[in-house]
Specification:
Elements: H1 4-9, H2 14-19, H3 25-30, H4 35-40, H5 46-51, H6 56-61, H7 67-72, H8 77-82, H9 88-93, H10 98-111
Length: 119
């Protein structure tokens, strides 16, 4: 109990005193009130300031006014081109679109359906 290993590695030893316990180095760096947690954690930390809902990245990418909504939202750049009744995909793949009209005409002709008029 009083040997060299206990003096170095024990709870009250050199390594244990530096790294362990409430006053140790690891608690001062990684503990709830430590340096790393104070910088990165909590509502006032660096991570929340960057990645939180109102943070730099969260504000740019998220929400209705964010970059992703402006690009991918229903009224955004990509959403406006591809989605909706007037979008690119509807003009190509919709019932009255290029592909939809061709496939509908071919299938209607094969099945003998004369309800579609093509002139």
């Amino acid at each position: 109990e009083d040997g060299l290993a206990d003096g170095l590695m024990g709870e009250d030893g050199l390594v244990g005193g530096l790294l362990g316990g409430g006053d140790g180095l690891t608690d001062g760096l990684l503990g709830e009130d430590g340096l790393v947690d104070g910088l990165l954690g909590g509502e006032d930390g660096l991570a929340d300031g960057l990645l939180g809902e109102d943070g730099l990245v969260g504000g740019l990418l998220g929400g209705e006014d964010g970059l992703t909504d402006g690009l991918l939202g229903e009224d955004g750049l990509v959403g406006g081109l591809l989605g909706g009744g007037d979008g690119l995909t509807d003009g190509l793949l919709g019932d009255d679109g290029l592909v939809g009209g061709l496939v509908g005409g071919l299938l209607g002709g094969l099945s003998g359906d004369s309800s579609e008029e093509f002139s």
